[in-house]
Amino acid sequence: MLFSIIGWLIIGLIIGGIARLLMPGRQEMGCLATALLGIGGSFVGGLIGRAIWAPRGGYYHPGFLISIVGAIILLLLWKAIRS
User: Fold this and answer.
1) CA 12 – CA 42 distance, rounded (Å)
2) Distance between CA 82 and CA 6 in Å, rounded?
3) What is the SS3 assignment for the chain?
């Protein structure tokens, strides 16, 4: 259980970091917020992927790229709320 949580944080940090690198401008976030951004991005990417590729209610596991897209969407929402 502990290792899966640590794994989520590490993968979330990688996905969130890539999303932050792809977005122009400065985002004031720490490491934990970046990891949570990546985890949330995977969730949003999974919802988008499920709506597009598994419309019959099947399970869809988000891939790396769709997770980054989801994280970018969350980052855009974060910037809109903060400004």
Assistant:
1) 8
2) 29
3) CHHHHHHHHHHHHHHHHHHHHHCCCCCCCCHHHHHHHHHHHHHHHHHHHHHHHCCCCCCCCCCHHHHHHHHHHHHHHHHHHHC
The Cα 22–Cα 35 span in angstroms is 15
AA identity, residue 31: C
Q: Which residue type, as a one-letter code, is found at position 46? A: G
> What would the pLDDT profile of 25-46 be if each residue is shown by its tens digit?
888 888 889 999 999 998 888 8
Ranges of each domain in the chain: 29-83
* Greatest extent of the chain over all pairs of C-alpha atoms, in Å: 40
